[in-house]
Amino acid sequence: MSNVAISQDASRRELDRLAELAEDVIRRARAAGASQAEVSASIDTGLNVNVRLGEVETVEHTRDRGFGLTVYFGQRKGSASTADLHADSIQATLEQACAIARYTEEDPAAGLADPARMATQFPDLDLWHPWAIDTSDAILLGQQVEAAGRAHAGITNSEGASVQAGENLSVYANSHGFIGRERGTRHSLSLSLIAGEEASMQRDYWYDSVRSANDFISAQVLGDKAAERTLARVGARRLTTRQSPVLFAPETARGLIGHLLGAVSGGALYRRASFLVDHAGKQIMPGWLNIVERPHLLRGQGSGAFDAEGVASRDSVLVENGVLARYVLGSYSARKLGLESTGNAGGIHNLVVESGNADGGAADDFQGMLKRLGTGLLLTEVMGQGVNAITGDYSRGAAGFWVENGEIAYPVEEITIAANLRDMFTGIRAIGSDVDRRSHLLTGSILLDNMTIAGE
């Protein structure tokens, strides 16, 4: 079998079909008495191959459909969805949504986004790169990735390599007359390896995630990276409890930015379940630090011309000179707060954390960030759910490396790092130029001036 990628013309035909279906259902919802209606429809196709120890473990072909309808009877809302695009299922979904809306309480904040905010321009963001890889070729690629990693002396086992190719077609339409079509591809390679034996066993991994398969790092490079990371963890120690600066590696640094987003998102704010309630316009980070949303980056992991409500996306500052410039809002949360949507229904688009430091000089690469850390903890993994969104208290299991005089000294494990997110954000000393581009949260490594490390 092969993964037959959807062609340019076929993808357009599918989008047109979804758009026609959405328009028809909105017309029928209005005829059934809905004052407003919106539809989201999607088709996801993909191939996922897993290989372990040179043998095929799983091969999965997917073709999933989704259709969701929300209707408003005044300010009473009803939603229903189906994974079946046949006429009978669509009609049942429409009837269910209308029935729910007729019996729900009125909500003053309910309703579609402002019609004046609907997107009118739809630039090509270079997101559509189907990967017509045969299943046999995907298996071979997975085997090559794994073989590259297992060839390193000291690697004792493998948890497997994965090859994924995925395509998404989606349409959002509403009774303002808005119809937005989106198509995008997302492909990934990953490898997880084991080094050492029994009590000294260590595991680590590496992966790549791209819009176009032409942008992948090579199988050899990915295998080498996974092996190097795994071998580097052999002989890990615990630390004694201490205070120390901490350098978040780029892949952990974006989690820190994720906590910021959670704290400034509308749902948390109108429920007053955030430590940053009423902080718009206030200093929350050092004065040299800027964070900007850039939804129109070519091949960006989070690029899009409009949000989940059809509101046009645009470049927008989130943090300027350390000051929280705005919140992250869809229309519902904006109304609950007496504000306007920021075009973030469904989440943030590409968020760029600009590299820099308090010195005002050029941003450091990873080696430069280690030197700036001096002696302290390089954090490469966090685990657990110890983050309190209301108070900002942060306490998580961690692993990484102890650094002395700007050089990695030895691996560490079974430690806990703790602080308060308020202090962590204000205590950012530098942000590296070593940006991890595998996410819609684009940040380099982040150096914090002090955290508590609990160990032995």
Automatic annotation (TrEMBL):
Q: Which family does it belong to?
A: Belongs to the peptidase U62 family.
Q: Which domain of life is it from?
A: Bacteria
Task: State the species of origin.
Answer: Dyella acidiphila
- Please state every residue range assigned to the domain named Metalloprotease TldD/E C-terminal: 242-455
Q: Write out the GO MF terms.
A: metallopeptidase activity
| Keyword terms of this UniProt record | Hydrolase, Metalloprotease, Protease
Which Pfam families does its entry note? PmbA_TldD_1st, PmbA_TldD_2nd, PmbA_TldD_3rd
Gene for this protein? pmbA
Q: Where is the Metalloprotease TldD/E central domain?
A: 129-233
**PANTHER family reported for this sequence:** METALLOPROTEASE PMBA
Which positions fall inside the Metalloprotease TldD/E N-terminal domain? 37-101
Signal peptide positions are none
What name appears for this protein in its UniProt entry?
Metalloprotease PmbA
